[in-house]
Amino acid sequence: MRNICVLLCFCLLCGACREEYDHKGKTPLAELKGNFLYQEDLLAVLPKHLSPTDSLAFAERYLRNWAEDVLLYDKARRNIQNDAEIERLVANYRKSLIMHTYRQALIHQKLADQLSEEELLAYYDKNRELFKLEHPLMKGLFIKVPLKSPDLSLVRRCYKSDEQEAVEKLEKYSLKHAVKYEYFYDKWLSLKEVLDWLPLKVADAEGYIEKNRQVELKDTAFHYFLNVTEFRAQGEQEPFESARAQVADILLNLKQVDFMNLVKQDLYRQAVEDEEIKYFNIERE
pLDDT-based confidence at 252, cuts 50/70/90? Predict the structure, then answer.
């Protein structure tokens, strides 16, 4: 669908790139005043699951906005008088961006290694009110097999158990017969992600899964088996495993001010020792 959309958009465009130019492997869709719009850029922002008509409409709006921005920038660039002030602002922004990027890399490189699991867990336990689920999570196992798959009785027995023997049997079976097999007894997945695997048509999917930990469904082509071993509803305590990254970010933010002050002090001290800083005497009349 996307390829059709892009092709149609390409045919609608005027002035597409015909001159030789190094596009570094990208596919040009349009050129305007030396600026190029590429197919890859359009595909990156094109929403999924749109109909061909809606995809084409979105692409046309995107192309129109791109062209208008190019034209407005060109007009503004030729009419702005104080170009030196713009360059100064750009230089200041570039300086700030470089320092910020370096600061973040340094913080994660140096401080992240200093955060122990005990420290992370202690902060999590002390601040549990900060970690409430916005979306339900679950642990479990899912397998999808064709309707005419052999030995479905084995699947029905094994998918309900998280015992090692049952899991191994199901894994072996899935290698030959499963269309999709997901083992997530050891990690948390979102309810939305799991529901995307199922042909479940109920008004309250969260309530259904929370009450029915073992689900078997089928449609015209497949059997679907889901075993839920753990479930956390929206608003409940977020498990430490899924909250760990957020806990680490919070602790890094709390520590980064003192850390960066020490870094700057050390850089200044080193510059003084190396006599890199030169002071000039200003004579006063």
Answer: confident
Q: What pTM value is reported for the model?
A: 0.57
Domains of the chain, residue spans? 2-79, 83-112, 136-232
Distance (Å) of CA 240 to CA 88, 129, 262: 46, 13, 31
Q: Which amino acid is at 35?
A: N
Residue type, position 155, single letter: V
Rg, Å, the chain Cα set: 29
Confidence of residue 144 (pLDDT cuts 50, 70, 90): very high
Tell me which of 103-117, 163-177, 217-231 is least confident.
103-117
Residues sharing a CB contact under 8 Å with residue 136, sequence separation 6 or more, in sequence order: 190, 191, 206, 209, 210, 231, 232, 233, 234
d(CA 50, CA 42): 14
Which candidate, 240, 234, 153, 259, places its Cα nearest to that of 188?
Answer: 240
Say whether pLDDT at 40 is over 80. Answer: yes
Strand partners, 272: none
CA–CA gap between residue 132 and residue 248 (Å, rounded): 16
**Burial of 263 from C-beta contacts in 10 A (0-12 / 13-18 / 19+):** middle
